[in-house]
Amino acid sequence: xxxxxxxxxxxxxxxxxxxxxxxxxxxxxxxxxxxxxxxxxxxxxxxxxxxxxxxxxxxxxxxxxxxxxxxxxxxxxxxxxxxxxxxxxxxxxxxxxxxxxxxxxxxxxxxxxxxxxxxxxxxxxxxxxxxxxxxxxxxxxxxxxxxxxxxxxxxxxxxxxxxxxxxxxxxxxxxxxxxxxxxxxxxxxxxxxxxxxxxxxxxxxxxxxxxxxxxxxxxxxxxxxxxxxxxxxxxxxxxxxxxxxxxxxxxxxxxxxxxxxxxxxxxxxxxxxxxxxxxxxxxxxxxxxxxxxxxxxxxxxxxxxxxxxxxxxxxxxxxxxxxxxxxxxxxxxxxxxxxxxxxxxxxxxxxxxxxxxxxxxxxxxxxxxxxxxxxxxxxxxxxxxxxxxxxxxxxxxxxxxxxxxxxxxxxxxxxxxxxxxxxxxxxxxxxxxxxxxxxxxxxxxxxxxxxxxxxxxxxxxxxxxxxxxxxxxxxxxxxxxxxxxxxxxxx
Length: 491
Fold this sequence. Notes:
Elements: E1 16-19, E2 22-25, E3 44-50, H1 69-76, E4 79-81, E5 84-85, H2 91-100, H3 134-140, E6 144-150, E7 168-172, E8 194-195, H4 206-220, E9 226-231, H5 243-248, H6 255-280, E10 287-293, H7 321-324, E11 328-331, E12 340-342, E13 346-347, H8 351-358, H9 365-368, H10 376-380, E14 390-395, E15 398-403, E16 406-410, E17 417-420, H11 436-451, H12 464-471
Parallel strand pairs: 3-9, 3-10, 4-12, 5-13, 6-7, 6-9
Antiparallel strand pairs: 1-2, 4-11, 7-8, 10-11, 14-15, 15-16, 16-17
Helix pairs in contact: 1-6, 4-6
């Protein structure tokens, strides 16, 4: 089997086809650059990324505890994916894949960014300069580009968003930030917010401020095609919520879960701000909006943020389903079907070529070296493709491979485990002894892929691996709680 196969997406001319009784307008990609798409035809692109969101912690993905009106409405106006994966169970490498359309392992981005470890090269701690970002590609197509919120792809000047294709940046460079304080340059969690186009206002509540800045960006660029990366910090630690939101979930006894629910609720309110701004400015119909989480919820003991990945087992940092399978919604009302669901296997690295495809750019293997593939042909021509995809993950102690309905998980202190996900979504029944040939073949394919990968650019502290290994044996809730929020607030 090929290593991280790179697809060729054949250009198609604008026309129409029928998918589930919806008329879909295809994009014309026959010419290089802007092709046949005039500026008025090119969609705006908004990527809304949550941070450490539990798989089942939105209404449309099964939550009966957290009302997520805005996220649910986005799914009603678009397409919801049930088998969407990120390329890593932690933030930075996952984001590196999202930004490039390439598997982060293919360029040595294997671990999360941390303090430089002994023997490492500090200048390597960031997205390699050899990699082009989706912002680079969309700028070439005439888009104004902006990122609001979390970056986490390098703090050195050469790695910062302004050097990686983004015209505008407001936010912070590290993995997490205090939600109420940004006035201590000696504390990474409380450091002042950064911006290359304004003096950031005094912080109120980080999720609210991020939403407000996104609205300002939309209104400022309403008359030109734009790409907005709305990179929210919520519900990543530190666990801090507004008092009025905590009151809404006062019935939840666990204080951690209560705070988490309040943070997700406020995140949803700010997703609503963005959607309202698109509606108010008349941009909704021709804007491709994507909602996703950068990895699974942080639900493992000792590091939990209160999230629940049910019905999946596992957590952020594990290659179990709970660490890598995430919510994914695409909405483009003028082009994509409304309220549809797609069961095909898709990856976070598919978003970059999808955005370039939608903008009228060419998406070809020889030219762009994508490992992902545009999702637009899948949505306009729903041919079953899951069995073709070979997906791999590797992070500290864990590695996994999926092909079709089979998934193999390999850990250093035990034989590899084999799961049939179509029948065992929670990875409860190891079938390696019953299907040894399948287990051997998947293990062999995984190994062949791994030996062809480059060395890691940097690593996390070695002692973290002991903790990560324990998370594979931890207990996880496989059902969502059902207690409803109170109606104390009018929001």
